[in-house]
Write a structure and sequence with these properties.
The structure is a single chain. This protein has 217 residues and is mainly beta. The chain has one domain: 2,3-Dihydroxybiphenyl 1,2-Dioxygenase, domain 1. The protein has three helices and 14 strands.
Length: 217
């Protein structure tokens, strides 16, 4: 499964455009008074403006070359504060054969760079914004993660992630190329104490050759 497009909301569209273009170096595909579209490798990240005192907060992950997680730390250190993970900066997901680092964007979204060793994406190039290969994960929040996972399977053919987990408060649907990370409302997003909250989110997926558009919340 692949995540082709992810659409989130923000109460500060200008600052969001500045963060993703100037800090992360993403190409701005389109900008209107109420939305922006940004290129992340083979994926598109969209933000839509809302009028609110606080911006919705989401979690999503960007795939990077699996052999360049350490280089990603060096690249990010003057761009954003990395979030501490297990007394360090790199999360080692052994069950998923992956490593990741985390930081917040201007909205407080928890953004993750993840290197999955089972994806054939090793690189010998200097790490740069071109090393941001695709949106790899989208965090979805619901009162009943297992029920939502079953609905995704029955309605769209999206499989349970073969590496697990299958827990009442946390599960994942998809493949190494693209995952929906399904968290129970109020469960803290790793590696923070920020509780997951249901917010409007839209995803465009490619699953088994079919394009799927899903609106959550």
């Amino acid at each position: 499964m692949q995540i082709r497009e992810l659409s989130l909301r923000t109460n500060n569209l200008l600052a969001t455009a500045q963060f993703y273009t100037q800090v992360l170096g993403l190409a701005l595909l389109d900008q209107t008074p109420t939305s922006i579209r940004l290129s992340i490798g083979t994926s598109t990240l969209c933000f839509k403006a809302i009028q609110a005192d606080h911006s919705p907060q989401y979690h999503f992950a960007i795939s990077i070359p699996h052999n360049q997680v350490v280089f990603a730390i060096d690249w990010m250190k003057n761009r954003a504060d990395l979030l501490p993970v297990d007394n360090g900066l790199i999360a080692d997901f052994r069950n998923w054969n992956a490593e990741a680092i985390y930081f917040n964007d201007n909205n407080g979204n928890i953004v993750e760079f993840i290197g999955r060793r089972d994806l054939d994406n090793a690189s010998g190039q200097v790490f740069s914004s071109d090393s941001l290969l695709a949106i790899n994960e989208a965090g979805i929040v619901t009162p009943d993660p297992l029920a939502l996972a079953e609905k995704l399977k029955s309605n769209y053919g999206i499989p349970d992630f073969s590496r697990g987990p299958r827990l009442p408060d946390f599960t994942a649907s998809g493949t190494d190329e693209g995952l929906l990370i399904i968290a129970q409302t109020g469960r803290n997003w790793y590696p923070t104490s920020q509780p997951a909250a249901q917010e409007p989110i839209q995803v465009c997926l490619i699953n088994q050759g079919q394009e799927i558009h899903i609106h959550f919340n």
